[in-house]
Design a protein that fits this description.
It is a single chain. The chain is α/β, with parallel strands linked by helices and 223 residues long. It folds into 2 domains: 34 residues, no CATH class; 179 residues, Rossmann fold (3-Layer(aba) Sandwich), CATH 3.40.50. Helix content is 36%, strand content 18%. The strands form 2 sheets. Strands 4-3-7-8-2-1-9 form a 7-stranded mixed sheet, with helices on both faces. It has a two-stranded antiparallel ribbon with strand order 5-6. Strand 1 and strand 2 form a beta hairpin. The longest helix has 15 residues. It starts with a helix and ends in an 11-residue tail after the last strand.
């Protein structure tokens, strides 16, 4: 039946897997299999753990732009489930809030929706946690595409502000590249008095030293 539906989708609508381009609805079985596996603890030079659900390449480099730039909103669940996997790798206590890294206002207006809030909300439902957009931009900043590590850091320095959470928080984002967005989010939340337990992302784009999140001992458990 699935093969028939995929063939019909290709014939009538031109639907295809956003990961590999094969005809079908959503991610195909092969692409889903490539995204399986335990979350990984990655090094993003933060004083708290940063966990990624999987690698950006070769699948998510196609899927995430299709979602946030082309408006493929049917991928909400797929990406939200991946983010939930990363959040679970941090093992946050009940009552923790997921706080999405804010997109540039110009990007939200152009897309017509806030992809970070949507994915964070799905991950919150999947994990039984809360989600709240406590971060906002006080400077628009330039698009990060094409910027180097140091340029990204300078571009985002001081660009975010945060409202008090009143509860522990986990920063969430779609892709970790240089880590500049995560560091700026951590700074803003910490200066607002927030207790930041860690950060969780759908994918990491730069291959850095890492290990299974199962080996992570979250610092809040020591307090």
């Amino acid at each position: 039946m699935r093969g028939f539906i995929d063939a019909a989708a290709d014939l009538l609508l031109g639907a295809s897997c956003p990961g590999c381009g094969l005809p079908g609805w959503g991610l195909c079985v092969g692409c889903r299999a490539l995204l399986e596996g335990p979350p990984e603890l990655i090094d993003r030079s933060l004083p708290v753990p940063v966990v990624a659900a999987c690698q950006y390449r070769p699948i998510l480099e196609h899927v995430i732009p299709r979602y946030k730039d082309d408006g493929a909103l049917h991928l909400d669940r797929t990406l939200g489930d991946l983010l939930a996997r990363a959040v679970r790798g941090l093992a946050p206590p009940r009552g923790t809030l997921l706080v999405p890294v804010p997109s540039r206002p110009a990007a939200v207006r152009e897309r017509g929706f806030d992809h970070a809030r949507r994915v964070a909300a799905h991950a919150a439902r999947a994990t039984g946690l809360g989600s709240r957009p406590l971060l906002s931009r006080n400077q628009p900043g330039e698009d990060q595409l094409g910027l180097g590590r140091d340029q990204r850091a300078r571009n985002l320095a001081g660009s975010m502000r945060a409202r008090p959470a009143g509860r522990p928080v986990v920063i969430v984002d779609d892709v970790a590249t240089s880590g500049a967005s995560l560091r700026e989010a951590f700074r803003a939340l910490s200066e607002a008095g927030g207790e930041v337990l860690g950060a969780a992302v759908i994918a990491q784009a730069e291959k850095l030293p890492q290990h299974s999140a199962k080996a992570c001992t979250p610092t809040w458990r020591e307090r």
